[in-house]
Hints:
The chain has helices at residues 44-52, 74-77, 96-106, 112-122, 138-152, 168-183, 195-201, 219-222, 225-232, and strands at residues 6-15, 18-19, 24-28, 33-37, 58-64, 67-68, 81-84, 156-160, 187-191, 204-209, 212-217, 235-240, 246-252. The chain is an alpha/beta fold and 274 residues long. The protein has a single domain (6-214), classed as P-loop containing nucleotide triphosphate hydrolases (Rossmann fold, 3-Layer(aba) Sandwich), CATH 3.40.50.300.
Amino acid sequence: MTTESLTLTDFGAMRGGRSLADPLTVRIEPGAILGLVGPNGVGKSSLLGAIARTGIASYGTATYGDADLARVPARERAKLIALMAQDHGAPGELRVRELVAVGAWASARKYPSMAVERALDQAGIAHLADRPYAGLSGGQRQLVQFARVLAQQTPIVVLDEPTSALDLFHQGAVERIMRDLGAEGRIVIAAIHDLSLALNACTDVLLLHPGGVAHHGPPQEALHPERVYDAYGVHTEIHTTDQGRHVLATADPYGADPRPEDTHPGVTPHRKDQ
């Protein structure tokens, strides 16, 4: 779908005039599925919002090909980047098909109705098409927002915790679609808390910690148990099934050797001898 790369140069999100983390420099090639992982509060959502230019202040540059995204008009940018945010709110009177159509119209597709129907089918929610959005469950709303992003048909797809409210079946469906998007040559950037999903779906992982990037590399390298412990303070193990899928399990959900308390302010680690 695209032969252009997305390049972030000394890039980051800001709040109140202050940088939220160290600047990031990375080149994301077509077909890449980049997972942003790390503890709560390290700025994953803010970074995604800064890339998609949703009103979050940023510094540095984000270029797609030769285009500086900060200088691309919003209407044209909607043809390049689609964002699925954590907030799944929408006007309650809209029906599912109408909300998904917002994505197709945003990118001014030639045949928006075809894009909408395809997105509904891909997300597995065609049966919900005429339902009011306000009456859906949290997981169903998440799938509708995912379908809206698919209908936009952009070369860059930005997903903020795309499986957080989904059941096991739909988690697998979203993972498959993420891989399909990569196979089509799109660039997928996703904030992910499910580290097993990151291991199986992503081609690259950025492991973030307070202040910046802990590691950038292939999933099994970035999510090596030692690096995960440094970032989260939890001991983990990676197991591989007979089918070749990777599962990251916590060896001790509380961490056998709690990190210094100042790394998790306000949290008192559980001790086994208590």
